Amino acid sequence: MTAPADNRVLIPTHGRAPSAPPGGSIVDLSGQTMGTGWGVRIVPPPGLDVVATQAAIEDELARLVGLFSHWDPRAELARFNGAPPGFYAVSEPFWTLLNAALDLADDTDGAVDPTLGALVELWGFGPPGRRAAGDLPSDDEVAAALAVSGWKGLRLNRAMRAVQQVGGMKLDLSGLAKGHAVDRLSDLLADLGATHHLVEIGGELRGRGVKPDGQPWWVELQQAPGAPAPRTLVALLDLAVATSGDWIRGFDHDGRRYGHTIDGRTGRPLDNGVASVTVLADAAMTADAMATALAVMGPVEGPAYADAMNLAAAFVVRGDSGLTEIVTPAFQSMLDEAA
């Protein structure tokens, strides 16, 4: 693998070698979904119908929005959020992703929490939109939203494949839905025979195979403004990447940045010094969820957890001397692989 000069470079350490791409051209497809853009680059196999492929991608994304959007009132998740108290049977794909989110909540002691929608809305990051300028939630409002939040309070009836709405609880799967969608599109393309491709939704990416010239899909990592690290490129050869950062979506008030990631323990946006976390993993949903979880864990617990789980992660942390970077051993190994 050859990367452009004068860049920091990450090379996968999984040791898998790609097969030869099926042709000498690349087809680019794109569109809009989940309030952001999507893009796909594929090395089309012989006979691939590009128009039909675009339609299949758009159909799959529409299906996912119809399941997991809390912005579309017709979506299954939004309907649950607005339902009165009771148990509600849910579809199999909804059940599967919700259980995956709850497993991650258990694994991370709540750093991933799919039940924080009421808090997300309270802070102005949900469907009701931004709060008035300078208007922060009161302690009583935060306490009320916390009372209907928390993954440990979500009850499931596994025999009926049903989820309990306690009244006012709002699910929010946006911490892993984009990553899940990237994985679904990657699997869809592979099923269509386009096994060499790059998929991106809102800055979260997954690459499989290589380009026609044998080069991997080189992608530049997102970094917080002012981050001390140099421009960093990663070879997405059977690899996914996601970044969680408070500069991506948030607002400033009285000299403080309020990012969109909510700490379920406090009911408030993160205030632990973490400006961003980038995670590389085999699956985009894992990278997506873990980038959020590690940011919530903070600059001490986060790197320790990532190290214990052998996650390739890079943290940018604010301190008295400015921004510093912390990388895990698995991340450093990818740098060493390129040296």
Summarize it.
The protein has 339 residues and is an alpha+beta fold.
- Binned strand content: 25-35%
Poorly predicted ranges: none
The helix content is 25-40%
Widest beta sheet: strand line-up: 2-3-7-8-11-16-17-18
Which homologous superfamily in CATH is the superfamily of the domain at 9-17 and 24-44 and 203-337? ApbE-like domains
CATH architecture of the domain at 9-17 and 24-44 and 203-337: Roll
Which fold name fills CATH's third level, the topology of the domain at 9-17 and 24-44 and 203-337?
T-fold
* Morphology call: globular
Q: What's the average pLDDT?
A: 94
Discrete helix count: 8
Major beta sheet summary: 8 strands, antiparallel
Taken in chain order, the helices and strands follow as EEEHHEHHHEEHEEEEEEEEEEHEEH
EC number: 2.7.1.180
Pfam family, one: ApbE
Cofactor: Mg(2+); Mn(2+)
Enzyme class: transferase
What does this 3D model show about the protein?
The chain is globular. The strands form 5 sheets. Strands 2-3-7-8-11-16-17-18 form an 8-stranded antiparallel β-sheet. The protein has a 3-stranded mixed β-sheet with strand order 1-10-9. A 3-stranded antiparallel β-sheet has the order 4-6-5, with no helix packed on it. The longest helix is centred in the last third of the chain and has 25 residues, at 284-308. The protein has a domain at 9-17 and 24-44 and 203-337: T-fold. It has helices at 50-68, 76-81, 92-107, 117-122, 139-147, 174-191, 284-308, 329-338, and strands at residues 8-10, 27-33, 36-42, 86-89, 156-157, 162-165, 197-201, 204-208, 218-220, 232-235, 239-245, 250-253, 256-259, 262-263, 268-269, 274-281, 312-319, 322-327. The model has no long low-confidence stretch (mean pLDDT 94). With 339 residues, the chain is of the alpha+beta class.
